[in-house]
Amino acid sequence: MSMLQMRNVFSSRGRNKFYQNLIKANHLHICRGGRYRDKMPQIEVYPCKCNGNDAMTKFCEITTFHGLRDWHNADRFYLRVIWTVVLIGALSAVAFGCYSILNEYISSPLAISYLVKEADEDVHVPDVIVCPLNRFNGKYLKEKNVSDSLAWYMQLSFGLATKHPYMRKFMIENILSKTETLKVEAQQMLDRLGMSFEMFVQEASFKCSDVLIQCQGPQGIFSCCYDTSNATLMTFAGNCFRIPGVLQQLPGYGMGISVVVHLPKDNFHIAPNNFNSDGILVKLAERGTEIGHDMTFIPTGSYALLPLRATKYDFINNPPYFECKPDDPSYGRVSCFDDCIYTVAEKKCNCSHVALGSQRRYPPCDTDQFLNCLQVELIKQLKEQWEEIFNICRSRCLLQCVRTQYTAQVSYLKFPIDETRRFVESDEQWEEMKNSIVLDIYFERLGFTLIKHYPSMTEQGFLANIGGQYSLWLGGSFLTLVQLILFITRCIWDQLISKCPITNSKRLTNISHAFLFKTEKINR
């Protein structure tokens, strides 16, 4: 075979002609002399491995896709049209179903379950926080020769909020207008007593034993004030006192905690910037956690029942769909908001708000520091960056993922009635009894309402739903999908190989060499 012939063979036009010439030559030798019939080289010519019709026929025969075999074997035009429409509709249904499942999986990853559950064991009655709504003990102020004006000036450090315009007018005319004079008197008073501002506030405030008379649980009477360092909380209204909850073993009245509160009104020092109400403020807090925003007022001279219902929240922190604070015993949302709002002002003034209590990073601000620095910086900051500050605080101070909220249905009666006067020995005891409040706090039932997050669709559920749509409309499975992928991959590969000039040249060269070699062998 000459070079010109070889070049023609490897050209795009000469391939088919070359195959035809080989076949004709083979046939010619056989027909001319039968003696070369058995010796003539037999050249086998293989077509492309992915012959479109044959490969499609084979795939249609082995696949489990619904309707594909019927579409391929349809021998009428209208049947082919019907099966085409059916297959397109099935593919559209699969696409829409899979899209809906994927969209739900992405946009709504969490679902909520609501369950009323009975407790498997005894439950703890929450801690009870009692606030007498008064800051300074008038008896102590008289003993230390502290005037009313000076005591009012010292209490301005708690804030300037008043509950009535008349009180604000009085505060402006009688206290704020004399701040320079009262500032000097306050410093002289502290020097005389040998106290700092912080120490004076602690000594002048009511103590736990001044307010709480008796605490009783199912196991009997116990001390209300056994740990004053952790049980006393400084708030805007003054000291509040935390009573530890008890273990309730049976549901209903009398199985919880009973507290007797006495308000020493004779020793109250009323300030214009306080609640100035006849009663107490009660808060409930989960055992070992910080207080929340709940508030309940109970008037003096009453017997109050607080039957409790507990709602437990068990949420999943899954931003950006839902964000909450993971379990952290030291975290409190109220303290977080206070810290977030006051941080910048505290840093500039080098002191903390006196009502922040145990969360203070700096010594408490005295009245002069509060009026001329802390309040000024805070107002300036809020005016300039109001929305930005509160957006930051809301994003930082999240709800706890796992928490318990207590709901109390408060009801009360007058206590004591006039007829009980004969049970006391003196008028002093009678006045003390009339200024008392009795609290009974208990669970109606030993159970709780559980509101819990759970994944709306797990990974296994997502795959199962997608597979359900795929199988429902097309009758496919994972193995069917593998067959389809392998079929498409093999056809693409074979098409690429058949179009590659280098590969075809090598194949044709091998064929020609084999033909020439066998021909020479026969001639010998």
Write the CATH fold name of the largest domain. Answer: Acid-sensing ion channels like fold
State the helix count: 19
Question: Which oligomeric state applies?
Answer: single chain
> Number of folding domains?
2
Determine Rg (CA atoms, Å).
Answer: 45 Å
CATH superfamily of the largest domain, please? Acid-sensing ion channels like domains
| Named CATH architecture of the largest domain | Sandwich
Could you name the CATH class of the largest domain? Mainly Beta
Give the biggest sheet.
Answer: 9 strands, mixed
Shape: elongated
Helix fraction bin: 40-55%
The low-pLDDT segments are: 1-13, 26-50, 515-519
Secondary-structure class: alpha+beta
User: Which whole number gives the mean pLDDT?
Assistant: 81
Strand content: 15-25%
Distance between the termini: 18 Å
Compute the number of strand runs.
16
Describe this protein's structure.
The chain is an alpha+beta fold and 524 residues long. It has two domains: 1-45; 116-454, Acid-sensing ion channels like fold. 47% of the residues lie in helices and 18% in strands. It is built from 19 helices and 16 strands. It has helices spanning 3-10, 14-32, 52-62, 68-73, 77-107, 138-143, 148-155, 165-174, 179-193, 197-204, 208-211, 228-231, 333-349, 367-384, 386-396, 427-434, 459-474, 478-498, 501-523, and strands at residues 110-118, 123-124, 127-131, 212-217, 220-222, 232-235, 238-243, 247-248, 257-262, 279-285, 296-299, 302-314, 402-408, 411-414, 436-443, 447-455. The strands form three sheets. Strands 1, 4, 5, 9, 12, 13, 14, 15 and 16 form a nine-stranded mixed sheet that branches. A five-stranded antiparallel sheet has the order 6-7-3-10-11. Helix 7 packs across helix 9 (179-193). 19% of the residues are buried. GO terms for molecular function: ligand-gated sodium channel activity. InterPro entries: ENaC.
